[in-house]
Amino acid sequence: MKEVLHCLLIDDDADDQEIFLFALQQAFPDMACSIAFDCLEATKKLNSREIPVPDYIFLDWMLPLMEAEDCIRQLQLIPELERTCTFILSGSEPFISAENLRLLKIKKIIRKQYDINELARKIAEAILEVSYPDTDGEDQGNC
After folding, report:
1. Could you tell me if 109 and 90 are in contact, meaning their C-beta atoms sit under 8 angstroms apart?
2. Strands, DSSP E only, in 43-90?
3. What residue stretches are annotated with the Response regulatory domain (predicted)?
4. Cα(49)–Cα(112) distance, rounded to whole angstroms?
């Protein structure tokens, strides 16, 4: 069993990365986090085992080089990520159908917040939802 939870942030904006890391530190002080600027860098780091297999992936919806949906499909080809939960970070509500959310196994869309306290709350809420799913029959646990 892992001792430290680990996340991977895929975001090309250095300011957004910094805000996310401050919020994550506030929400989960013991969680480690790796960063990739785009999906190609993320897959390279994961395939080369440069970074640990993350428990959670936070993916910016508006990435350069590859659309977020294509990035998720690329990440799903990595067998070690089978149980990794994926969350979308977006400055605005992304246009994606409920069916695609389900097919891509996106657990939640988190609106980017520039208030670190609010973003920390949203991150904590998202992780707790998948860690302790409701008993309403929906398979939210076991990403």
Report:
1. yes
2. 56-60, 85-90
3. 6-127
4. 29
Question: What pairs with residue 33 in β-bridges?
Answer: 7
Which among 119, 98, 111 has a CA at the least distance from the CA of 18? Answer: 119
Give the pLDDT mean for 86-110: 88
**Rounded Cα–Cα distance for residues 128 and 93 (Å):** 22
In order, the DSSP letters of 63-108 are -SSS-HHHHHHHHTTSGGGTT-EEEEEESS-----HHHHHHTTEEE
Report all structural domains of the chain as residue ranges with CATH numbers, in order of start.
6-94+104-131 (3.40.50.2300)
φ, ψ of residue 56 in degrees (nearest 5): -140, 140
Beta bridge partners of 58: 9, 87
State which amino acid sits at residue 34: S
3-class SS shares of the chain: helix, strand, coil, % to 5: 40, 20, 40
DSSP helix/strand/coil, 113: coil
* Statement: the pTM of the whole predicted model exceeds 0.85: yes
Q: Is the pLDDT of residue 142 over 90?
A: no
Cβ contact 131:141 at 8 Å:
yes
